[in-house]
Amino acid sequence: MIRYSLLVFAMLAIAIIAQKNWFRALCFMLPLLAVLERPDMPRTMLEIPGLNPFNILLGIILIAWFVQKRNDGSHWTASKSATRLFFAYMVVLAVSTARAFLDFGAFVEAQQFAGALELPSRGEFIMDNVINSAKWIIPGLLISVGAKTEERVRLAAVGLLLTGGLLSLQVISKMLPGLIGADDLASRALRVLDRDLGYHRVNLAAITASCAWAFLAAKPILKTQFRGVIAAGGFCLCTIAMVATGGRMGMLAWIAAAMVFGFLRWRKILFVVPILGALAVMVIPGLQERILQGFGGGDEDNVSQYERRAEMGAIDESGRDRYSITSGRVVVWPIVFEKAMERPLIGHGRIAHQRTGITIRLKNELGITSFGHPHNAYLELFIDTGLIGVLIVGAFYWVLFRNSVRAFRAPKNSIEYAIASIVIAFFVVNLAASLGSQSFYPKQGATLFWIAIGLALAWFTKEKSPAPVVEPRTNARPAH
Length: 480
Description:
Layout: H1 2-20, H2 22-29, H3 53-72, H4 80-102, H5 104-113, H6 122-135, H7 138-146, H8 150-179, H9 185-197, H10 201-217, H11 227-244, H12 248-264, H13 269-283, H14 287-291, H15 303-312, H16 322-325, H17 329-340, H18 352-355, H19 358-366, H20 377-407, H21 415-433, H22 447-459
């Protein structure tokens, strides 16, 4: 009862703030993402589907932005090239979704074959793949039109980091038995995280890895004498949470971000990261077993399973279980690629992994039931949208990433440097993690990534970055 009272109080406070400053309300709302999918959070209100705290507040903030945008100058200012690529990106996703809707029967058949208790309706398909998918872009787009001043950038960064920090605290609290060796790290992550936090471990691994480096880069944004302690503490907190998820792609993405930062500017990182990795393996029970799974021991002790994987060709000449090492991807990816090459230019449309019969084939021929999607965002995009979609989406991310890298050369105490660091952290981690999971379709687990995209659109898609200015007053008219 107390938690619900606090939730209602927080919602009322944010709604009141939105009447005067929609951007501040948006940033205060972001931490709600850290608890939105917990089992004790209300999914509906007044028995109306979709009427939950996040959607209510997002609607209020959207209305407030529409009313206030003329006075505070919050409008789209991205360059023409970035705007065209973003629009093309959205068209690619819309066409892909429409093709899946027109082939809805194949999707239902795949769900029925998988043993779904309730088969999806067309209305549920639209709700899940159109409305719910699109809404996770909205916070990032609002950031892109509103984060034009130093004060607003600080608010956005604090909201983003606070969300990552709250998620990290929850991950550590739930995974503490796995961290101290009282439970298996990987199996506990699969059992507990999605059930208690509402996020799959692969999404949490990407979020916490991104926020770890974002914390370390945020010192110029934090207005406090303890900013160094906060940055270092946040980095350690999110890194421990990332390890606790047991997500190996998240760990590799974390290392990839370290390498990128090291080669671009932070040379000391190249020496510190190996030391941190060695200490983590020595201190955290189960981490070494998780990292080396498939290289000897573990699943190989299950003789029948090991023989089955040998029949799949997943055991190499040295006896390494490539199925365990890649969590089955080494077997599934060639099948996905083979199907994608049937329509290499335009793909098969959204959810092609299920609609084209790959899930049915995996179960019938290989006995694999755990792959409802390719577990590779690039392959998913390729089989869904073809080379056309891959090139358009890739070009959009490349333009933002390239401009952010250029801004990373700014003085270390500048706002441009801090924003560039945060954007680079999220881009590198999420694009690296996409090799083994994730998706280029908007989803809840990628909301913070879209906020980083919004920051890049607001600051790094022009010939010159906007000069730092003072937060405009609510009633002030924008300069012309």
